[in-house]
Amino acid sequence: MDVCHAPQYLPDLVLDIIFSNLELPDLFSCMLVCQNWYRVINDGRAEPWKLMCRRKIPKELLKSELLSQLHNHKAKLRALYHSWNPDDCSMHIVVKQNGFTLHRNPVAQSTDMARTKIGYNSGKHVWEITWTGPLGTVAMVGVSTKEAPVHCSGYLPLLGIDKHRWGWNLIDKLLLHNGVSHGNYPLLNNAPKYQIGEKLQLILDSENGILHFEKCNEFLGIAFKNLPKTKLYPSVSAVYGNTEISVVILLSLYMVK
User: Fold this and answer.
1) Could you tell me the pTM of the whole model?
2) Which Gene3D superfamilies does the UniProt entry name for this protein (predicted)?
């Protein structure tokens, strides 16, 4: 056996021990070394993912309902890295320590927005968004680019007010982009209003420039078409004090060309 390539053929147990001491960027680098290393690391149930989850995500959160749809440690860790960005939100929003939930402080005459840490301009991706506090007069969910400011004065439909945002107002059930209404949503007959605590799926198809939503596995219709190829970030805007909103990425697929 070539000594230079010997590490590739170490037993899985030994590789698990080695990989368990690495951080995420190093793990991704190791996946590129050879097929054997890729196989060991790519297993979402592998020991390195489990140990890293324990280091970075509180035990009670790992077992919580919030992450219940994620069936392995790799998926839960990925969700952490795709959660709310504490450095890309309004000054009136606090991202809780777990990263998955934001809290809007009670500030009058203010509309406040937050984005996730990672945006996409390729592939197809699914997030679960849950409003766990009062909605107020404007409660919007959608996508935005980095160019969209995260705060404005007054109570306004911020997530849809300019060309950098595409949003759905859960209160009046209207779609908005560039300050223009794009019609009622969901595209269903007699669709009930969103209720606090319901889980919404935001689906961004970057390959085809389409954004749509689902609720309880029901397709609500295409919300926006012809989205640009720039990076888009799942976003929310809120006006009600002490409201809380959670986000969890469920699926991320890239197209093979």
Assistant:
1) 0.86
2) 1.20.1280.50, 2.60.120.920
Distance (Å, whole) CA 49 – CA 23: 10
pLDDT reading at 144 higher than 80: yes
Specify the amino acid at residue 244: E
Is residue 31 classed exposed, middle or buried when 0-12, 13-18 and 19+ CB atoms within 10 A define those classes?
middle
Indicate if the pLDDT at residue 8 is higher than 80: no
Token pair for residue 5? 């390539």
Cβ-contact 144, 158 below 8 angstroms: no
Helices 73-81 and 47-56 pack at an angle, to 10 degrees, of: 40
Amino acid occupying residue 3: V
Place of tokens 């592998």: 46
Higher pLDDT: 28 or 116? It is 116
| Residue 10 CA to its chain's centroid (Å) | 36
Tokens of 237: 């805007």
Cβ neighbours of residue 85 closer than 8 Å, sequence gap 6 or more: 95, 114, 115, 116, 117
**pLDDT one-digit tens code per residue, 118-139:** 999 999 999 999 999 899 999 9
Burial class (CB in 10 A: 0-12, 13-18, 19+), 252: middle
Q: Which pLDDT does position 7 carry in this prediction? A: 57
Give the sheet arrangement for strand 199-205, strand by strand.
Answer: 93-95, 101-104, 244-253, 124-131, 199-205, 210-215, 218-224
pLDDT of 14 > 90? The answer is no
Q: Which residues share a beta bridge with 113?
A: 237
The counts of H helices and E strands in the chain are 6, 15
Judge whether 141 and 159 are in contact, CB under 8 Å. Answer: yes
